[in-house]
């Protein structure tokens, strides 16, 4: 009896069908791999584009450069000119008349909107600045000189009697020194009144006893 063999040739229809199936399987695998690679590339590209877009949105906007200043600095004065006076040295300067009678001291110098000194405020009377009265004169009325020791002094054509009855200068902007002096004076007056009241009460108590 002849035995049937289960093998088949490469050119048999079955072999060709198996080969085709295998080939199709390989193509499908390659196609799937390629497709996955393309998807990965597309995803990476998409992420890159999203990242660049977010950076562009969050990055500060470019600003135009600030225009350079057109202000021209004034010329620098290297030293004090002959004839110029340091007005800081005039504050506190002694004021005399032509008879060398001391009238007071320069307390304040006032300037106008243009920076020019217009008014000199002289403190007259009082003791060590306490209780004195401020009298003002045009700055142009003052004459500057030096005493025998070389100290800066001011000459003013007036007498002590004239300044004694002169009107007190009225301030629009009260200087800090005057404000402090007034507060001190008010405090001292309040302390005196309190001390007097306590003394009167103590005297009445002693009389009752």
Care to describe what's here?
It is a single chain. This protein is an alpha+beta fold and 209 residues long. It has 3 helices and 6 strands; from the N terminus they run αββββββαα. It has helices spanning 13-58, 160-164, 176-208, and strands at 94-96, 102-111, 117-124, 133-138, 143-146, 152-155. A 6-stranded mixed sheet has the order 4-3-2-1-6-5. The longest helix is centred in the N-terminal third of the chain and has 46 residues, at 13-58. The radius of gyration is 52 Å and the shape is flat. The termini are far apart.
Give me some keywords for this one.
40% helix; 3 helices; single chain; alpha+beta; 209 residues; disordered N terminus
Proportion of β residues? 15-25%
Radius of gyration equals 52 Å
Provide the helix percentage: 40-55%
User: Can you write the helix and strand succession as a string?
Assistant: HEEEEEEHH
Separate helix tally: 3
- Report how far the terminal alpha carbons are from each other: 164 Å
- How would you describe the shape? flat
Q: What structural class do you assign from the helix and strand content? A: alpha+beta
SSE layout and pairings?
Elements: H1 13-58, E1 94-96, E2 102-111, E3 117-124, E4 133-138, E5 143-146, E6 152-155, H2 160-164, H3 176-208
Parallel strand pairs: 1-6
Antiparallel strand pairs: 1-2, 2-3, 3-4, 5-6
Provide a brief overview of the structure:
The chain is an alpha+beta fold and 209 residues long. It has helices at 13-58, 160-164, 176-208, and strands spanning 94-96, 102-111, 117-124, 133-138, 143-146, 152-155.
């Amino acid at each position: 009896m002849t035995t049937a063999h289960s093998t088949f040739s490469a050119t048999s229809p079955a072999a060709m069908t198996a080969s085709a199936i295998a080939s199709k399987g390989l193509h499908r695998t390659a196609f799937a791999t390629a497709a996955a690679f393309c998807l990965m590339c597309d995803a990476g590209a998409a992420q890159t584009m999203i990242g660049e877009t977010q950076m562009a949105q969050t990055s500060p906007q470019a600003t135009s450069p600030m225009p350079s200043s057109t202000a021209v600095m004034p010329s620098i004065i290297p030293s004090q000119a002959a004839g110029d006076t340091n007005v800081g040295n005039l504050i506190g300067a002694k004021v005399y008349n032509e008879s060398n009678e001391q009238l007071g001291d320069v307390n304040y110098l006032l300037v106008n909107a243009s920076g020019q000194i217009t008014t000199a405020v002289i403190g007259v009377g009082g003791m060590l600045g306490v209780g004195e009265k401020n009298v003002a004169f045009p700055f142009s009325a003052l004459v500057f000189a030096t005493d025998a020791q070389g100290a800066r002094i001011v000459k003013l054509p007036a007498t002590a009697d004239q300044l004694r009855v002169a009107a007190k200068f009225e301030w629009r902007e009260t200087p800090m020194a005057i404000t402090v002096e007034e507060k001190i004076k008010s405090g001292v007056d309040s302390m005196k009144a309190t001390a007097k009241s306590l003394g009167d009460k103590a005297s009445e108590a002693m009389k009752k006893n």
